[in-house]
Design a protein that fits this description.
By secondary structure, this protein is α/β, with parallel strands linked by helices. The chain contains 8 helices and 7 strands; from the N terminus they run βαβαβαβαβαβαααβ. Strands 3-2-1-4-5-6-7 form a 7-stranded parallel beta sheet, sandwiched between helices. Helix 1 links the parallel strand 1 and strand 2. Helix 1 packs across helix 8. The protein starts with a strand and ends in a 9-residue tail after the last strand. It binds 1,4-dihydronicotinamide adenine dinucleotide. 1,4-dihydronicotinamide adenine dinucleotide binds next to helix 1, strand 2 and helix 6.
């Protein structure tokens, strides 16, 4: 039997790296993307992840490019299909925070467009293209039921007026999950949202002290930082087919942050 194939955006570090390792353990061949490839530095980024992933006897194809750029998405699809000819799991993980936090009354169109293009438009059209490929696979008969996973954030339901455009982009992905879940159910393609809480990665390293304090004070019922592996385990459960009748489901991996408490 051929190995299943996962495409993971933003796989060079943090949450995406954790997901790549988890799916490699499950025997997936992987197409991992990031903004940059650094061939001169084989210990970092996608090359480090490639070495780690391939220690599980699967293949890892690294692809660089800006997810917001239609040409880069086209190249990514070409490289993916020429390497493996199929995609069974798509994980839309790549995303950015803000270059500068500004109050919603001050924030700029430039920042809004940057975040929307990367966090929202990129996954929308990448998923459209990959979903059409998955439908072809299903029609031809496939041994693996495909699935699509969107990584959102507690910011999709929690207002932070000093990073409004990030919150709006993540709320948009929540709706994207529902839309694709509805549209793709007839083909047996499951679509899921995983909503991470505060996860220890490069993205959050700049606000480490602030969140150390908030977590210690009880911001989250489970008083610890989340790790990339926490998100990866949820992706792993979907990839293993354990949630096959739950399309459109939101999985909160946030230490209980989403609970209303009194
Ligand atoms: P990170 O900053 O450590 O890694 C981001 C990854 O996305 C990198 O591989 C980077 O190359 C890639 N990427 C960034 N911009 C890109 C672009 N324009 N085109 C292609 N790839 C691009 O981030 P982290 O923390 O691992 O976050 C991953 C996802 O999880 C993001 O969507 C983020 O919004 C979300 N998230 C993270 C949380 C956290 O606490 N770290 C909490 C909630 C959600």
């Amino acid at each position: 039997m051929r190995k299943p194939v996962a495409m993971i955006t933003g796989a060079s570090r943090g949450i995406g790296r954790g997901i790549a390792i988890e799916l490699a353990k499950q025997g997936y061949d992987i197409i991992g993307t990031a903004t940059k490839l650094t061939p001169e530095d084989r210990d970092k980024g996608l090359f480090e992840v490639k070495d780690r992933v391939e220690s599980y006897a699967v293949n890892f194809v690294p692809v660089a490019g800006d997810i917001a750029d239609p040409e880069a998405r086209k190249r990514l699809l070409q490289e993916a299909f020429s390497a493996f000819g199929r995609v069974d799991v798509l994980v839309n993980n790549a995303g950015v925070g803000l270059l500068k936090r500004l109050d919603i009354l001050e924030t700029t169109e430039e920042s809004y467009d940057r975040v929307m293009n990367i966090n929202l438009k990129g996954p929308f059209f990448l998923t459209q293209a990959v979903a059409n490929q998955m439908i072809r696979q299903v029609k031809q008969g496939t041994e693996y039921a495909p699935s699509v996973i969107f990584i959102t954030s507690i910011s999709s339901h929690t207002a932070s007026p000093n990073r409004a455009e990030y919150c709006v982009s993540k709320a948009g992905i929540s709706m994207m999950t529902k839309l694709y879940a509805d549209r793709l159910a007839e083909y047996g393609i499951g679509v899921f949202e995983i909503s991470p809480g505060i996860i220890a990665t490069d993205m959050t390293s700049v606000v480490k002290d602030k969140y150390d304090k908030l977590i210690a004070e009880g911001l989250t019922p489970i008083k610890r930082w989340g790790q990339p592996e926490d998100i990866a385990k949820a992706v792993g459960a979907i990839a293993e087919g354990r949630l096959d009748f739950s399309t459109g489901q939101v999985i909160n991996v946030d230490g209980g942050f989403h609970l209303r408490r009194l």
